[in-house]
Amino acid sequence: xxxxxAEVTALVGSYMWPLFRIAGxxxxxxxxxSKPVPARIRLGFALAITFVVVPVVSPTVPSVDVLSPTGVxxxxxxxxxGVLMGFAxxxxxxxxxxxxxxxxxxxxxxxxxxVDPQNGAQAPVVSQLYVLMVLLAFLALDGHLVxxxxxxxxxxxxxxxxxxxxxxxxxxVVTWGSMIFSGAVGIALxxxxxxLVVNMSFGIMTRAAPxxxxxxxxxxxxxxxxxxxxxxxxxxxxxxxxxxxxRTYHLVQHLLGMGVP
Length: 261
Description:
Helix content is 74%, strand content 2%. By secondary structure, it is mostly helical. It has one domain. A two-stranded antiparallel ribbon has the order 1-2. Helix 3 packs across helix 4, helix 4 crosses helix 9 and helix 5 runs parallel beside helix 9. It is elongated and about 85 Å long. The protein starts with a helix and ends in a 6-residue tail after the last helix.
């Protein structure tokens, strides 16, 4: 049995080229790409998914030297495809964080900050509550499996080559960033409306009884009512976030040539 150098190169390339796309997704996807996850764990996930996906898909691998200019372009394209898929999903998490920030500011908890393990930045505690709940729902509803399924289909609809994403695809993702604000408003709107009524009531009380120290009683009342509003509106967070994830999946499928969002 004789194994030539070309056969070894083809075998290594059949796993190496898909690895760049898969690693780009794992690096930027929610939960998997968070900072507390060690780099070795991310690399292990990427390698495990690669060894499972490649035999199933059998992607067309170009016979190109890795260190050639064409090989470098292919690597950049594969990494960009994976990062774009993960970044699109991160927009949903950003919308949830923004919704939590708006609610926290309305109820007077804007100063209660803690380090967000997802992004490594400070965020209100209310945002952390929303994010943890959405991430758990993401796993419970098999969102990570849908993500891997779209990744697997991407090798069929957008084969490995030096031509892939175009500038218009990146512009669509930038435009999709408006979902951060629209999605945040959709999640936080019940709390915003309820707390606005509370603040208007305090304003009327101040005009009716100027001697009443509204600042002494208003802050604790607003905070307690805010917790009550959060408790009542929590059931609506999961459907809204799930709808945003579904819209994001359709966007990614559209960018990869799988269908229309």
